[in-house]
Amino acid sequence: AMGCEPCSRGVECTDFADAHRARFSHPEGITLACQYGSKCYRKNLQHLKQFVHPGDRNYRMGMVHFPQRKGVQVKPEFRSLRDLFNYCDPDESGNISRAEFHDAWDFLNDLPPTQDGEVQVVPRLPDTFEEAWGRVAGDDRTHLTFAQFARFCTDSLIRLPVGVDLAEGADRACRFQYAGGGRCPCSNFEQGEQPNMCRCGHKCSVHISDTAQMSYEEQEILQKLRRRADMRSGTLKLDSIAAPR
C-alpha cells in the first residue's frame, strides 16, 4: 500500500492477508517464486496468483524473486527452450539481445547431461561466449529470434523440448499492453460473456499464439526441429508433417 511502512520481509513476505497488505507496503513488479517450482502440486487459483511457477508468463528475469528452501537457494527451472528464452526476454519483445543471450548462455552451461535411451547426451557448447555469439549471430545480428536460439541449442545437443506447439489449438496469449507498459497476464483466450471478448476483458484479435507471431522461415525452422525430435523418439508419422502456418 502506498505511504505505508515497508514490510520487513520485502518480496519474500508470504502473508497475503488483506489486513497485512493494507498495513505494510511490498515491492511492486516482482513476484515470489514458488519454492517447489515445477514439483508444486497446488492448483488453487489463490496460490497461482500469489506465486509464479516455471512456464508462467511472468516467470522472467527481473520479474521473479527466488527464495531459499531449507537453506538452499531456489534456482530458475526451464522445462523447454521456450521457457529459457522467455526468462531471458523480460520485455516480451520476441528477441534477445547479446546481453540477454549471455544470461541464457550461463543457464545453458549449467544444464546437466540428458539420457537418450541408454546413451548419455552431453551438451556440446562452444568453449567461450564470444565463440557462441559468433556462431549464432555472426557479424550482422544484434538480436536473436527464438527460432535462431532454438536451432543453436539443438545443434549444441541441448535436449530440452522446443516448447512451442505448432499444432492447432496452441495457446493464444493476450498481447494487450496498458498505457503504463504493463501487459495483460492472460495466457490463453477464453470466451467471455460478450462476443469475441475474452474473460480477461480484451478482444479476440489481441490474443495471438507464439507461433502466429513468427515468420514463415522461423516456423519452418521449428518444424524441422520438431521432426528431428520425433525421429529420435520414434513418434514421427508421415501424416503429422504439415507445412508451417
TrEMBL record:
Pfam families recorded: zf-CCHH
Q: Which GO terms describe its molecular function?
A: calcium ion binding
- Which controlled-vocabulary keywords does the entry list? Calcium
Q: Which residues form the EF-hand domain?
A: 76-111
Enumerate the transmembrane spans.
none
The record ties this protein, via InterPro entries, to: APLF_PBZ, EF-hand-dom_pair, EF_Hand_1_Ca_BS, EF_hand_dom
Q: Please identify the protein, giving its name as recorded.
A: EF-hand domain-containing protein
